[in-house]
């Protein structure tokens, strides 16, 4: 029996630690931004067969880490899927008034885009086969159609496009391209490994296992077993996630389908089951994956990268510029579909960003190499092409589209003159400007009228008109401008359900008065804490991506004893009642209550500088 050594594991661990520190320092001092995974592959090349050759691939632990790291990466890709976005249910952002064409149906746009990209890739690959440069066209066609979510999403976030209709459509396209490519490569691999129609039918076993895992997950969530298990030692949601990953990978492998399809489906399943707990669970799962398993995969990709085979093969070497042209050309042509909804500048920018290839291209090439579909030289050419696209795509996108500036928030009060006069004098908005629009019985506002108020995704809107007009106004504003928040103040609770379906909050003064009286009778202490402005104050802050509190659980924060985080409002108007284990994310809006205004403001500032050590 071959004894496993700790030396390769130590080498991988040290490189996994050193590489992100090095790339971060380059970005800070030299302004050179290199994705961490590219740095990990480069480190692997240095110590592998193309460099110093001090590390091999025959160690069983290293082999397992590389294989499972690949599966775990596909799992996290599935976990990234937002089915509200994929199905077109998520509310569009403030650029919706100009939205037209295919972008109104993100799923249809994504399917058409992927189909067109595969078709164009196949036509190009067939011609390369005729020229004797390739032997099998389908694998290259699928690789040309894939998109790296790991590159696309961070770039959109950095440029503030991820919440816009444009960014949401790009994310849906990337998700469908990822899923479609994984599924197609899994089927292709099954056929090339001796699979037949019976084996492919056995793939239904994988779907059956997916449904069983889904039902088990629903039962566990209904039983609320996490409420009576010790959180620190049980971590039952993490354990369930790993059980699902390994179960679906094992079943996929057993029926002759690539295990990566099982891991990707496992991620999609956990994404659906997690719901409100997804941010916290995803934070833990990403910490495990990106902390060890995934770096091991990318480092081993570099170790196995045969640069000498690439340099020694003129046919493979001259394929690199051809593959680069294909990678960008296929995506730019397919991106013409975006022109039905967006400008030419946005279309070309989207095409360049969607050209980014990385993890799945490397993985698909590894599958092709294992099955004998491609040789080592072509494998090296594909990896090099993927690395170049991952570097160039964000650069092209950032130069084509400037960073989207988030508008300053404003409070806009719309309604009858009488109600506006009753509401606005008592509002406390700090430095946020207040705009008003009076609605009279003979002049209902149009989209053009409201656009003059500079409504945008940062705006907060209060609607206070007659009950029959409130819903019309809320729908008009929600569908055409999608502000950060809409509050309807009506005289009754009629239409509350309809407003909730729009994602709009509503309140009736009479109901609010009854609620306050009940609180005063049953919870006098809480009433005075929340409503007595002489003894308490509430402040609001939004965490930016560079806020040091981002990524921390609330119990890790050093909040002053005279303050408390009341609620966390997350993307999609998701209201979270925080617990100690709630992990804060960039973009979260926190409502903080303090003994007085000074205490609340002190807590807010402390959160924004939480990461700095006190001396």
Explain the overall architecture.
The chain has 615 residues and is an alpha/beta fold. Helix content is 59%, strand content 7%. It has 26 helices and nine strands. It has helices at residues 6-30, 36-47, 60-79, 83-86, 106-130, 137-145, 149-158, 165-192, 197-201, 203-223, 231-234, 236-254, 259-274, 278-304, 307-311, 314-334, 344-353, 359-371, 376-400, 417-423, 447-451, 467-480, 496-501, 509-522, 524-531, 597-608; strands at 411-415, 434-438, 460-464, 485-489, 505-507, 537-542, 563-570, 574-576, 589-594. It has a five-stranded parallel sheet with strand order 2-1-3-4-5, with helices on both faces. A four-stranded antiparallel sheet has the order 6-9-7-8. Helix 23 (496-501) links the parallel strand 4 and strand 5. Helix 1 (6-30) crosses helix 14 and helix 12 packs antiparallel against helix 13. The longest helix is centred in the N-terminal third of the chain and has 28 residues, at 165-192. The N and C termini lie far apart (55 Å).
Characteristics:
alpha/beta, globular, 26 helices, Rossmann fold, about 5% strand, Na+/H+ antiporter like fold, five-stranded parallel sheet, disordered C terminus, four-stranded antiparallel sheet, Alpha-Beta Plaits, about 625 residues
Beta-strand level of the residues, as a percent range?
Answer: 5-15%
Q: Regions with pLDDT < 50 over 5+ consecutive residues?
A: 92-97, 611-615
Side by side, the strands of the main sheet go: 2-1-3-4-5
| Helix percentage range | 55-70%
Major sheet: 5 strands, parallel
CATH fold title of the largest domain:
Na+/H+ antiporter like fold
State the helix count.
Answer: 26
Q: Rg to the nearest angstrom?
A: 27 Å
Number of strands: 9
CATH class of the largest domain: Mainly Alpha
- Tell me the span between the first and last alpha carbons: 55 Å
The CATH architecture of the largest domain can be named as Up-down Bundle
Structural class category: alpha/beta
What is the overall silhouette?
Answer: globular
